[in-house]
UniProtKB/TrEMBL annotation:
Residues in Phospholipid/glycerol acyltransferase domain copies: 37-149
Origin superkingdom: Bacteria
Catalysed transformations (reactions): a 1-acyl-sn-glycero-3-phosphate + an acyl-CoA = a 1,2-diacyl-sn-glycero-3-phosphate + CoA
Annotated keywords: Acyltransferase, Lipid biosynthesis, Lipid metabolism, Membrane, Phospholipid biosynthesis, Phospholipid metabolism, Transferase, Transmembrane, Transmembrane helix
A Pfam cross-reference name: Acyltransferase
Domain remark from Swiss-Prot or TrEMBL: The HXXXXD motif is essential for acyltransferase activity and may constitute the binding site for the phosphate moiety of the glycerol-3-phosphate.
DNA repair recorded as keyword: no
UniProt GO BP: phosphatidic acid biosynthetic process
Protein name stated in the entry: 1-acyl-sn-glycerol-3-phosphate acyltransferase
Alphabetized SMART domains for the sequence: PlsC
GO MF annotation, one: 1-acylglycerol-3-phosphate O-acyltransferase activity
Classification via CDD domains: LPLAT_AGPAT-like (cd07989)
Amino acid sequence: MNPFTYWLAKLLVIVIGRIFFRVKVRGRENIPQEGPVIIMSNHISLLDPPLLGAFLPRKIHYMAKKELFDNKLAGWLLGSLGAFPVKRGTGDRKALRNALKILKNEGVLGVFPEGTRYPEGELGEAHTGSIMIALMGQAPIVPAGIKNVKTGGRTTINFGKPIYLNDFYEEKPDKETQKEIAEQVMAEIEELLQMD
């Protein structure tokens, strides 16, 4: 991550977000000020990562599909902004190591548990991989709901209260329990999307 590029991009997105998207943010106080954190959000637009990152009080790193890094310029920019590639659907061990390293260094990891974009108003099913990362990295999950990402409207970003998984750190839960946790996170995100 290039700090200069990151802060310059953040400032630019804040200005554009305030002017063209009239971004309104609620629940920033729910984001722990230190320690590892995973922000889990719905995904409706290519603008979700920069908007969430710009209005988050801490630096954030994202997993981004590997194909985005195939273009050298896009790959450089994404890397400068703290993103790293993930081969979707493969159980990418390198991406997992990168994610866990960020959490071990008490950083913030942004994930879209649905794995891809869904039209506004629809939520996809959460993949359990993001829950596994939270458990392995011993990080609380802060659910986030982002809606109305279009110019001229009012984009809203709502951050929910952290979900702590301390009871599961000692003994990794089975797939069924991970699925239940993922469903709980998605239910929280859905609730955040209902807020005006």
